[in-house]
């Protein structure tokens, strides 16, 4: 995926500090908790580890990054497929992980949605479902890649060559590290390279409306457009 | 006999060979058949081929993915692993180890594979354990326990465990852990469905399993309450194996020509042993219901009708259900016809896997890898692979299966989209290279916890 970036003859701007592309790999651990009803799910979401919340929201989105529509998180998927509760599934699917900078906040949101449903339909709390929800957790290993960017040209080159795990690591998981509703790419572009609008455009990409490969293409397109002064 | 139904002898005769010695006597890993020889001789297994190198996977998963594997392996350089199972040939575990061991070795993690030995009494006991762990009724006797433990002890006396990691596959060699010594990390890789194990057998094995440092299961639902960490490793397929590698169009055409399959009309295929749990008669009923509205042919390709008395009976039932329909093609193939299975899957318009029970369902994985729209029962590990309406269609009945055949044959764009998503799902989660990555991650994790 080596493509040259149109530079319009302008020399590439050198960032104050380079961007180091990292990546991450995940090992899936099976937890002891499982839920065979919505009541049990609520209880387990209250008490499960942060690593479980991460697995069933952030990480599962990565595992299903190739799906263009209709997949958001494991809780929503289970509410639909095992509980036959489409309204609950819709509400859970609307939990946009990019609005959260902590796993505690996501946990509270999921608890709130399930509690609301159980207040509306108390009979559903103990109803047995077709397949239990098995709580898992992710063990993460962060790794460097050979790709380092000092200019936008190098940045685009790196974006095009790293794996999608790296894109997910910097663009999606980053907010848990940064504790900001932003991402590593936008932070670097704004703070180190001085491209504030480019950074903001990238942060507005709707990751639920395309695949992770689409996200990569959109980031590249936005940066390339900046070469032509369009951003 | 209906001309659409093919048996192994008939296939061999058509290919220019007489029946010869029974090729079904042993299961040998399918190996390379040069494309020019496709369908030439199925009476004997072909010679094995050298496994691919890591670099051969670059066109499939990308160079950066390979770089990640190499990076993960760096922390394990010089480490040694011993894999132990109970069979060198035949079966999914041996097939998987044949690929995994050389790849780990190439990454600098020196991996050695040993096979335990045992007499008929031992394997009779472990076969009974296997069925019991799958949920079958079984009365565990003191004698069976003695046979199991004595054979493990006998093997242990002849084995050295100087490696950094010892990986025991399935229950047969699990008791080797009882005398573990030194700093080696011991891992139990369970390939079988433990979701509803026979209580007695599981209680007998459980104290041994808890002597390991970690256990690996193929599905979340197989995990047990254990005092050790449990990890999820999905079963996987090798994209470069005979059953899954890319094929030239001429090979696919030749295979279809030989079996009398018309590629100008839709082809619906189920690949599986002739086993009631795979419900071949249910597939025929679904096809007949769908055929009232859409034109198609049905291919049932499998084996097991010769080496398994029940298989022969199931084949007979399928033939009776086919009722001389010339558009139903039943193929009873020997286990080494991987290339032909590959070609049949690639020629198909839709793939069906209407199992009543299933382990993981690797035939579904194979179909998805080939980007085929797939209709499968929501049993066993299939829902891990098929997300309904996104990477395939899940069904729960003959009627549902018939409806989805009609729907996908009349909505080819949607069907194509399902196939494409299914392929990506396999690429991300169910390939051998992903399995290698999981192993590297686990070895690193256990190393850090030491």
Structural features, described:
- The complex is a heterodimer of chains A (231) and B (450).
- Chain A has 231 residues and is of the alpha+beta class.
- Chain A folds into 2 domains: 19-24 and 138-227, no CATH class; 27-137, no CATH class.
- Chain A has 10 helices and 2 strands; from the N terminus they run βαααααβααααα.
- Chain A has helices spanning 38-47, 50-63, 74-81, 86-93, 103-120, 152-161, 164-178, 184-191, 196-203, 212-227; strands at residues 19-35, 133-149.
- Chain A has a two-stranded antiparallel ribbon.
- In chain A, helix 1 runs antiparallel to helix 5 (103-120), helix 3 (74-81) packs antiparallel against helix 4 and helix 8 (184-191) runs antiparallel to helix 9 (196-203).
- Chain B has 450 residues and is an alpha/beta fold.
- Chain B has 2 domains: 68-236 and 431-445, Glycogen Phosphorylase B (Rossmann fold, 3-Layer(aba) Sandwich), CATH 3.40.50.2000; 244-429, 3-Layer(aba) Sandwich (Rossmann fold).
- Helix content of chain B is 42%, strand content 13%.
- Chain B has 16 helices and 13 strands.
- In chain B, the strands form 2 sheets. Chain B has a 7-stranded parallel sheet with strand order 1-10-9-8-11-12-13, sandwiched between helices. In chain B, strands 3-2-4-5-6-7 form a 6-stranded parallel sheet, with helices on one face.
- In chain B, strand 5, helix 7 (199-209) and strand 6 (214-217) form a beta-alpha-beta unit.
- In chain B, helix 3 packs parallel to helix 16, helix 5 crosses helix 6 (142-158) and helix 12 (362-369) packs across helix 15.
- Chain B is globular, with a radius of gyration of 22 Å.
- The N and C termini of chain B lie far apart (65 Å).
- The chains are: A alpha+beta (231), B alpha/beta (450).
- Chain A binds chain B through residues 23, 25-30, 32, 63-68, 70-71, 77, 81, 131-132, 134, 136, 139, 141, 143-146, 161-163, 165-166, 211, and chain B through 62, 64-65, 67-68, 71-72, 217, 220-221, 223, 225, 229-232, 383, 387-391, 421, 424-425, 427-429, 437-438, 441-442, 444-445.
